[in-house]
Amino acid sequence: MTVKVAVTGFGGRMGRSLAEALTQAEAAGTAKLSAAIVRPGSSLTGADAGEVAGLGRNGVAIVDSLEKADFDVLIDFTAPAATLSNAAYCAANQKAIVIGTTGFAADEKTQMLQAADRVPLCFASNFSTGVNLCFNLLETAARVLGDDADIEIVEAHHRHKVDAPSGTALSMGEVIADTLERDLAKVAVYGREGQTGARERETIGFATVRGGDVVGEHTVSFLADGERVEITHKASSRLAFSRGAVRAAVWLIGRNAGHYDMRDVLGLK
Ligand SMILES: NC(=O)C1=CN([C@@H]2O[C@H](COP(=O)(O)OP(=O)(O)OC[C@H]3O[C@@H](n4cnc5c(N)ncnc54)[C@H](OP(=O)(O)O)[C@@H]3O)[C@@H](O)[C@H]2O)C=CC1
Ligand SMILES: O=C(O)C1=N[C@H](C(=O)O)C[C@H](O)C1
């Protein structure tokens, strides 16, 4: 069975990358782009999705609402407000959904995840295989080093990114805090300036770099006396994310309603 996938935010960086990943999936017989959705009133409405993505004509005309789309699974990499509305649509219409949007406020995230009561939903701050492997490595590093090491997370992204720290950096912080039974809301330090005082033992520091065309880089340092361990992931192509999201979309078919993540898809739990 070739899974029919709709993509919201089609004109965005991830929308176009998803088009490429779905073209590859169609050649492999696993999934295909069945609908490309843009914001109501967008000048891309009616254009050929393949041409817009720079892949050559594919016969899928871009539409400006989910109501006009035929699909089995929606992949949504947009912005929090759009994702909330798209998740509610999927829940009401019994469609599985893969969500990659980051930058949710806590109450928005809770609301978004309510769709998982009614349909299968896979949400991940990062769909690359490498970052999800890093989550497991971070659990091990935190278990072995966490009581002796200071933990700092540094991330870098392109100049267009609108949220900080990245969703991935926050997920890394959550994985480490959970492993060490610390409350991230209490121990996180988001940047430092001025007379900060000496570092408090249990804090987890976050620092953000923005510029150029950096696709996404994350380093977690475990800094102990006499040695340090650094776990780094560098994405050099958005296909690392979009191929993962397509894999998740195929994996969701036939699953029960529920909240899954990319570590479930990869069997890393
Ligand atoms: N989980 C993961 O693996 C990854 C997550 N991301 C996340 O995915 C999201 C998108 O990233 P990226 O593609 O770089 O961003 P872009 O800004 O390039 O694309 C976002 C798209 O969403 C559309 N959009 C935004 N708001 C609305 C709205 N209210 N209604 C309809 N459409 C809307 C935009 O349309 P318009 O152009 O008309 O505004 C645009 O097409 C971000 O949150 C990012 O952090 C990114 C990469 C990997
Ligand atoms: O906005 C991006 O580009 C990315 N966002 C995600 C995040 O916030 O972690 C994932 C990836 O690093 C790229």
Give a topology summary.
Layout: E1 3-8, H1 13-28, E2 31-37, H2 49-52, E3 73-76, H3 80-92, E4 96-99, H4 106-113, E5 120-123, H5 129-145, E6 150-157, H6 167-179, H7 184-187, E7 188-190, E8 204-210, E9 216-224, E10 227-235, H8 239-252, E11 258-260, H9 262-265
Parallel strand pairs: 1-2, 1-3, 3-4, 4-5, 5-11, 6-8, 7-8
Antiparallel strand pairs: 6-9, 9-10
Protein name: 4-hydroxy-tetrahydrodipicolinate reductase
GO molecular function, one term: 4-hydroxy-tetrahydrodipicolinate reductase
Function: Catalyzes the conversion of 4-hydroxy-tetrahydrodipicolinate (HTPA) to tetrahydrodipicolinate.
Provide an overview of this structure.
There is one protein chain. The protein is of the alpha/beta class and 269 residues long. The chain folds into two domains: 3-123 and 238-265, NAD(P)-binding Rossmann-like Domain (Rossmann fold); 129-235, 2-Layer Sandwich (Dihydrodipicolinate Reductase, domain 2). It is built from nine helices and eleven strands. A six-stranded parallel β-sheet has the order 2-1-3-4-5-11, sandwiched between helices. A five-stranded mixed β-sheet has the order 7-8-6-9-10. A hairpin with a 2-residue loop joins strand 9 and strand 10. Helix 5 (129-145) runs parallel beside helix 6. The longest helix has 17 residues, at 129-145. 40% of the residues are buried. Bound molecules: NADPH dihydro-nicotinamide-adenine-dinucleotide phosphate (NDP) and the ligand O=C(O)C1=N[C@H](C(=O)O)C[C@H](O)C1. NADPH dihydro-nicotinamide-adenine-dinucleotide phosphate binds next to helix 1 and helix 3. Homotetramer.
